[in-house]
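Support reply, case 0932

Customer input (verbatim):
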Amino acid sequence: MAAQTAATAANAQKATPSGDWQGTLSAGGQDLHLILHIAQAADGAFKATLDSVDQGANGIPISSMSLKDDKMVFAVDAVHGSYEGKISADGSMIEGTWSQGQALPLTFKKIADSAKQLAKPVRPQDPVKPYPYHEEDVVYDNKSAGNKLAATLTLPQGKGPFPAVVLITGSGPQDRDESLLGHRPFLVLADYLTRKGIVVLRADDRGIGKSTGTFATATTTDFATDAEAGIAYLKTRPEVNAHKIGLIGHSEGGIIAPMVAARNHDVAFIVKPSRGRLGHKTFVVHCAWHS
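Our regenerated output:
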């Protein structure tokens, strides 16, 4: 009877693997510590998220998850990855393979104490408040599209007027900091430029964060009009030198910047990434200061 009870308990644990699981993925000489969070709804469906601790990426959604007998399969569309593993007889371990361009072994172990989480990585490049400049949350209209863009404006100390830039995000839905895997490159860039005496405007993409509009059906041309709305807004600010407004574009933003500059004489310069020799990224700056 005792053996049967133990077997039943083990099977129940395998059938409902709710809880937190910890694993280490070794790739390219680097260890990535992962935490898998699994919950099961009343209808039996699983809801799960994945944390990549070393990258500071928490709550990455698991797109789909299935469990049949002791076999678990889930997909993470956000990173184009998938996992297939087998739950151990005692329900304490999942041994399997992570696939993301290549197949790598990955074992998850059940975390007995959910409070035991791995320490978050230090991001020394992230600016720490109080900043030596003024930061302001603003909202402005893209009148041609009928949407509102929510943004952060950072202003150097002093009287001005100062040169200014609009930061243009890359492809995919992005917030104003271009947050990805725990990094916030636009926050870091805005901090650096503002400390150097440049006004910086960075906005949530349309339909993302506090901006209105629809992201899914928008084209590169549509996003270009959002960038133009940013230029128009900067021209209303007395702290900005209207003859020295530029664009800095990353990824798709590097396509949008010259599109906007080609049809808008208010753009004094653009900065966009380019491919150098051996595939290394360089940055090309095109300037045309107005007198």
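We compared this against your earlier run and they match. Two observations from our side: The chain has four helices and 16 strands. Residues 220-234 form the longest helix (15 residues). Please reopen the case if you see a mismatch on your end.
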